[in-house]
């Protein structure tokens, strides 16, 4: 049964609305002014709010603004007098679902209420679906071992914050997937997720890639270009393999983190940026600091939270789940029915060293799908897997 709150200082209107809506099998609560109504909204769960515009203490527009400011999730239908139509239209622009005019037309009222309820249900279903999608994204980090459960727990705890995270681990362990899940489960999830592989960009180009450049800044700069910091505005910038970043780029990244400002190569103007920075490396940055190849102050700026992604050899109990996950995923990609894999084949996979970690396992499963029998056997593993 849907729960509706009425906020109106006119007792006869509260009474008549309550009687009509209860007759239509709605559960109804009422408040005589905005302050009382807002308190009820904070304390209870309502599927719809009917709110008068002109009231003492706190009028309907103030109530609507408070709902917006405090992220109270309820569709609002404003009740307007003849002279309040312009205000009611302004309320709709502010976020109200609709408005109904006095004297109240009961047919129009019920149509508006049902439309608002339909929208409320749709919004709820969308949020639940979105939550499932984000949950499934997190479940892409496959495994139930203690080591990977600790990583998942850290992601769930840290993702909603704006804390910077340094992700460490060997090549192929899934550091990018951790970064993506931190973004997808954050308040920045609707904004861009921009990745930069610092090892893949020549040192003379990394600053232009990160901070952009002005036209004429260097020979090939034929036009102005935004860098990755600007492209990630409002979202997340993932600096992969940050241990390979040049010293001059490290200094500029440090300034960006300290001041939330950047300047393009060849530019003199400071540009404010609002970006959450995540970084990853397969190197021991403390050793790099000792050797003078990485700035200690940058390390401390990046490593507010440390997440170490375990190597596959340290979580071999997860190989059955990972193998099944890749069998399902890769069979679909190749257009094949999902192949089975024998227990002996799984045990054979668990006995391997996996120097390439999850990435290597994925490639092995793809090879076995293509070359193996309908049920992948221990013999298939021994014939086609060389590590």
Element layout with pairings:
Layout: E1 3-7, H1 11-23, E2 27-31, H2 34-43, E3 48-52, H3 60-69, E4 76-80, H4 85-94, E5 98-101, H5 106-139, H6 146-158, E6 165-168, H7 175-184, E7 193-197, H8 206-211, H9 228-231, E8 236-240, H10 247-259, E9 261-262, E10 271-272, E11 276-281, H11 285-290, H12 296-302, E12 305-308, H13 319-334, E13 340-341, H14 343-350, H15 357-371, E14 375-376, H16 378-384
Parallel strand pairs: 1-2, 1-3, 3-4, 4-5, 6-11, 6-12, 7-8, 8-11, 13-14
Antiparallel strand pairs: 9-10
Helix pairs in contact: 2-3, 13-15, 14-16
What does the overall shape look like? Answer: extended
Give the N-terminus to C-terminus distance in angstroms: 61 Å
| CATH fold-level topology of the largest domain | Rossmann fold
- Under CATH at level 1, the class of the largest domain stands as Alpha Beta
How many beta strands in the DSSP annotation? 14
- Considering the protein shown, what is the CATH homologous superfamily of the largest domain? P-loop containing nucleotide triphosphate hydrolases
Please list the strands of the largest sheet in the order they lie side by side. 2-1-3-4-5
The radius of gyration is 29 Å
Give the mean pLDDT.
Answer: 89
Q: Give me the strand/helix succession.
A: EHEHEHEHEHHEHEHHEHEEEHHEHEHHEH
Structural class: alpha/beta
Summed up, the helix count is 16
Number of domains: 3
| CATH architecture call of the largest domain | 3-Layer(aba) Sandwich
- Main sheet specs: 5 strands, parallel
Low-confidence stretches: 131-139
Residue fraction in strands: 5-15%
């Amino acid at each position: 049964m849907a729960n509706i709150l009425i906020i109106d200082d006119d007792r006869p209107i509260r009474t008549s609305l309550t009687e009509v809506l209860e007759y239509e099998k709605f559960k109804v609560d009422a408040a005589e002014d905005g302050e009382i109504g807002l308190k009820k909204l904070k304390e209870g769960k309502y599927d719809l709010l009917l709110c008068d515009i002109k009231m003492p203490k706190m009028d309907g527009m103030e109530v609507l603004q408070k709902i917006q400011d405090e992220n109270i999730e309820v569709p609002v239908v404003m009740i307007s007098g003849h002279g309040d139509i312009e205000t009611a239209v302004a309320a709709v622009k502010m976020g109200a679902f609709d408005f109904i005019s006095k004297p109240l037309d009961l047919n129009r009222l019920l149509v508006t209420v049902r439309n608002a309820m339909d929208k409320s249900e749709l919004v709820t279903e969308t949020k639940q679906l979105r939550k499932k999608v984000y949950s499934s994204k997190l479940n892409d980090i496959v495994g139930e071992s203690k080591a990977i459960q600790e990583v998942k727990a850290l992601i769930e705890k840290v993702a909603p914050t704006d804390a910077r995270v340094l992700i460490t681990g060997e090549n192929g362990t899934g550091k990018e997937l951790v970064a993506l899940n931190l973004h997808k489960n954050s308040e920045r999830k609707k904004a861009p997720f921009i990745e930069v592989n610092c090892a893949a960009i020549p040192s003379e180009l990394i600053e232009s890639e990160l901070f952009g450049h002005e036209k004429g800044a260097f020979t090939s700069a034929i036009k102005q270009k935004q860098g990755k910091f600007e492209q990630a505005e409002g979202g997340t910038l993932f600096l992969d393999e940050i241990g390979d970043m040049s010293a001059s780029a490290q200094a500029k990244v440090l300034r960006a983190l300290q001041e939330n400002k950047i300047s393009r190569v060849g530019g003199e103007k400071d540009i404010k940026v609002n970006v959450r920075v995540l970084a990853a490396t397969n190197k021991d940055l403390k050793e790099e600091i000792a050797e003078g190849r990485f700035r200690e102050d940058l390390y401390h700026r990046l490593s507010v939270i440390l997440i170490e992604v375990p190597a596959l050899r340290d979580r071999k109990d997860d190989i059955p789940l990972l193998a099944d996950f890749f069998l399902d995923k890769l069979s679909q990609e190749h257009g094949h029915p999902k192949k089975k894999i024998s227990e002996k084949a799984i045990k054979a996979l668990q006995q391997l060293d996996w120097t390439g970690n999850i990435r290597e396992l994925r490639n092995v499963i793809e090879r076995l799908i293509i070359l193996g029998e309908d049920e992948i056997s221990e013999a298939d593993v021994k014939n086609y897997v060389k590590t």
